[in-house]
Amino acid sequence: MEEETKPKRRVPRKKCSRGFPYYLDTKDSYGNPLQIKKSSSAEMAAVWIICKTSEGADWLPHVNVAKAKQVIRALQKFVDDHTEKKGPKDAAG
Asked: Which pLDDT belongs to residue 76?
């Protein structure tokens, strides 16, 4: 008899002290905090990309939807350029 699969529960996102969700809360390649948090802007849908340097300084670009799409395309290109492509021989495994 097949095992019944349970629907995955959504893990609640971490929220800032003002109640806005973090879309990402991780560390960069050097171990510095890196977060993407929903902006409180009432004028546009936007996020903050929060980066802290090793010296503790903040770098805070504010990104609207159009700019986020540009960032996504750029990051996807980076991933595609640095991901080994599998040929038909390698596809199985």
From this structure: 92
Phi, psi for residue 55 in degrees, rounded to 5: -85, -5
Across the strands, what pairs with 64?
Answer: 46
Contacts of 53 (CB under 8 A, 6+ apart): 32, 59
Residues near 55 by beta carbon (within 8 Å), at least 6 away in sequence: none
Which parts of the chain register pLDDT below 50?
Answer: 1-2, 90-93
Query: Which amino acid is present at 51?
Result: C
pTM: 0.64
Rg for the chain, CA atoms, rounded: 18
Rounded-to-integer distance, Cα 15 and Cα 63, Å: 18
pLDDT of residue 59: 81
